[in-house]
Amino acid sequence: MSFGQGKWVKLGQKGAGPGARSSHAIAIVGQKVYAFGGELKPRVPVDNKIHVFDLQELTWSVAEATGDVPPPRVGVTMAAVDGTIYVFGGRDSTHKELNELYSFDTSTNKWTLLSSGDSGPPHRSYHSTTANDRYVYIFGGCGVDGRLNDLWAFDTAEQKWVKFASPGDNLKGRGGPGLVVASGKIWVVYGFAGMEVDDVHCFDPVHEEWAQVETKGEKPTARSVFSTAGIGKYIFVYGGEIDPSDLGHLGAGKFSGEFYVLDTETLMWKRWDDGSDSSDHPGPRGWCAFGAGKRDGKEGLLVYGGNSPSNDRLDDIFFFTPCLDASGK
């Protein structure tokens, strides 16, 4: 597969949706987008409902959830394996870091608390999560005593946690990194480690080895809290914070609206012409909910909401589809 340009489409929304928010999460199962958590005002969780967006009908609904419904939170992550969504961590209304792992069965709308306390990763928020067809991976984030650099996996078949080898001090603890499974490895891309950083690391789960990789090409500037997705051997990176606010999480930093792709085989970055002058382009933003999924049978990246340069939370939805060649076909 050889990618060229790509195209953003702004999706219409019918009915009453969740509203503007940032620091929330989504997971895509089939043609449904499941959204959870987030904030409208900084550090104040909005709600704990599961909002469902139909990618075909473009309609919002609220799942009538049962079971162990998690409390509201920000800085939370989600990932789906088959028809089950896994939700980990975040920060509650008292600013306490959390470490519960919940599952949400999309066929029954039932929540189940799978782990808490000392049985899994330590408490954290603004970490990153990704998944393959069996494992849900958790990396980094803001812990009780500082930023973390640990990698964990929840085995959905065995229903147990696995902690991987430490990457050492070479991979600094960070919040808001990209985390992607591609080419049989788990990739950690950029993030905030006291400053925005631009390093790339990968973990080989077969040999249980970490490596820092030197990338080349049209390399993005250092950034964090960007939207990312893995499709095939490619890692897609859109937007993010490239200069933090002096007010920390209470303010809006400087955001990017650029789109980059990393080929994990050649380690070559490429900046894409993604129609930044189009009204369908999401523009500069960060702290979005995002996920890889399919629309009209084509794989791509969905971005929902986030924070804007004016520090206003957003409620729009965009879908980016990579094209197969530079002509856009």
TrEMBL record:
Protein name, entry field: Nitrile-specifier protein 5
Keyword Signal found: no
Cofactor: Fe(2+)
Keywords, sorted A to Z: Iron, Kelch repeat, Repeat
Gene Ontology terms, MF aspect: enzyme regulator activity
Listed InterPro entries: Kelch-typ_b-propeller, Kelch_1
Keyword field contains Repeat: yes
GO cellular component, one term: nucleus
A GO biological process held by the record: glucosinolate metabolic process
Top-level lineage group: Eukaryota
